[in-house]
Amino acid sequence: MLMAVKNNIKFILLSLKYNLKACMEYKKSFIVQTIFMIINNGFFLIFWNVVFGINGGNINDLKMNDILYIWGVASASWGIANFFFGGVRELNRYILEGSLDTYLLQPKNMLLNVAMSKNDFGAFGDCLYGITLSIIASENIFQFLCLLFYIILASIITISCLLIVRLSAIVFGDIEQIAHIYENNLFITLSIYPFQIFGGFVKFLMFTIIPVAYVVYFPIQLVKAFDIKIFMVVIFATIFFATLAISIFYKALEKYESGNNIAMKE
Q1: From CA 238, how far away is CA 112, in angstroms rounded?
Q2: CB neighbourhood size of 214 (10 A)
Q3: Helix residue ranges per DSSP H, the chain
Q4: Are 122 and 36 in contact (CB under 8 A)?
Q5: Positions in the chain whose pLDDT score sits under 50
Q6: Of 15, 16, 167, whose CA–CA distance to 93 is shortest?
Q7: Which residue from 58, 183, 185, 263 puts its CA 20 to 30 A from 175's CA?
Q8: Given this model, what pLDDT does residue 17 score?
Q9: Which pLDDT score is estimated for 242?
Q10: Domain ranges for the chain
Q11: Predicted local distance difference test score (pLDDT) of residue 2
């Protein structure tokens, strides 16, 4: 067991090393995508700053610092999930093309191998932007370290949700458009706006099918005022969604139809 964990950690570190090297091969593209992602996110921050300025710095007990927390956690967790584990969003293509055969034949943890097979250059901008905002919002180093811990948990939940959605391609076929709507129109949108503005049904979704409540809102509450009950809920939610995603992944492999393409891992 310990040997397997050690091997997986070694594999993760090596994958990160080679993925970063791959980014440096396209240095200009990597830098440009990172900068434009930061600029794109920055416009939303300017918008909120103007809104709070018009309303005297307070909107229904929300302050600009709360928005910094929201964007910090949401951006950083999304960035980590997609930059380091971008292969998850390629699962739909892998399944349809029968490309998972390449990974089935390799003596590595298949889920980690698939997840770390790609990285999204632009997502590094999200990661950098989110961590920068987290530093600005944090009152001290301890609070920032706590925030980093919650960002890691949020990243695990994010990766798990993306994995579950992409695996549905085994049952429903090409679900690229559905996955795009879930990820960009629902998951991201719900995670970057204050929890208070949403109604009952949307809040229900935020605790279940689109669990951004555990990704953003609970972690922010914990940073502002630690509560052991909320902390345990976040830990349980992280374990639950990660376990569910892993279980579905290996269960889905039983229904996976092998392709007839001869290909090497990219």
Answers
A1: 17
A2: 24
A3: 2-25, 27-54, 64-84, 91-97, 101-104, 110-115, 123-137, 141-167, 169-172, 176-180, 189-191, 200-207, 212, 218-224, 228-253
A4: yes
A5: 262-264
A6: 167
A7: 263
A8: 73
A9: 94
A10: 2-253
A11: 62
